[in-house]
Amino acid sequence: MTDSRYLKRTILKEEIFSQFLKGTRNLRIYLPPGYNELLSYPVVYCQDGEEFFNFGRIATTANRLILDEGIEPFIVVGVEVDVKVRTQEYAPFGDLFENYTSAFAKEIIPYIEEKYPVRRSKEERILAGDSLGGSVSLHLALMYPELFSKVISLSGAFYEESQQIYAEASDLSWLEVWMIVGLQEKDFKSDTGVFDFVELNRNTRKLLEDRDASITYAEKDGKHQWGFWQNELPDALMHFLNKG
């Protein structure tokens, strides 16, 4: 049974207008227990923000880690997505990829940093995403290394176009990526074809390691779904936020 303390969560909803996206974008912001505007907090930025909250249960998990595991309190920002244009925004071959990544780095980050006491060093901004959300998080880090250096990838959809971009990088010694993929993801049917996600993740891991990135990698029994990722999310958060 879930401890009732974990369910007392502060989750705010915001709406931001994006010049790059030519429309509004919804955000969900989790504030930790004991939140104090006079303090400063590490921050986790999640692609597929609604799913991270609803299916990943990231707010409940964050409460548990902070209350029971001694993790330093942190803020979570979930950036919601319109599933009809998700691939266009998240994939490097998508028509809206440049617009979305620009909006994320140049509009959403400044908006959050002006309104909430989040820390502004790249070491204390964490990007998180599942599937294409994992790959766009990695793309954001490579495009804006002054902003991001830490990425959580849950079964990243590292298609060939993404791998080609990663391969063009030379020195990634500043980058730290936590990666996991499910062993039952070898013939996953996506909206762009059928892919072996295990192979995609193994190839991407090698590309990154060959360029001196720091990689924490695991393959476990699991399918391409939140039932798998939800259970792995605490370890991913602990990896970057446990400084004890």
Can you lay out the helices and strands and say which pair or pack?
Blueprint: H1 4-7, E1 10-18, E2 23-31, E3 43-46, H2 49-54, H3 58-68, E4 75-79, H4 86-90, H5 97-115, E5 125-130, H6 132-143, E6 150-154, H7 160-167, E7 176-182, E8 188-190, E9 193-195, H8 197-210, E10 214-220, H9 226-241
Parallel strand pairs: 3-4, 3-5, 5-6, 6-7, 7-10
Antiparallel strand pairs: 1-2, 2-4, 8-9
Helix pairs in contact: 3-9, 7-8
Description:
- The protein is of the alpha/beta class and 244 residues long.
- It is built from nine helices and ten strands.
- The strands form two sheets. It has an eight-stranded mixed sheet with strand order 1-2-4-3-5-6-7-10, with helices on both faces. It has a two-stranded antiparallel sheet with strand order 8-9.
- Helix 3 (58-68) runs parallel beside helix 9 (226-241) and helix 7 (160-167) runs parallel beside helix 8 (197-210).
- It is globular.
Uncertain stretches of 5 or more adjacent residues: none
Alpha plus pi helix count: 9
Shape, principal axes of CA atoms: globular
Structural class: alpha/beta
Distance from N terminus to C terminus (CA atoms, Å) equals: 28 Å
Radius of gyration: 17 Å
Strands in their spatial order, largest beta sheet: 1-2-4-3-5-6-7-10
The helical percent reads 25-40%
Could you give a short account of the major beta sheet? 8 strands, mixed
Count of individual beta strands:
10
% residues in beta strands: 15-25%
Tell me the series of helices and strands, N- to C-terminal. Answer: HEEEHHEHHEHEHEEEHEH
Mean pLDDT: 95
Features of this protein?
244 residues; 39% helix; two-stranded antiparallel sheet; 9 helices; eight-stranded mixed sheet; alpha/beta; globular
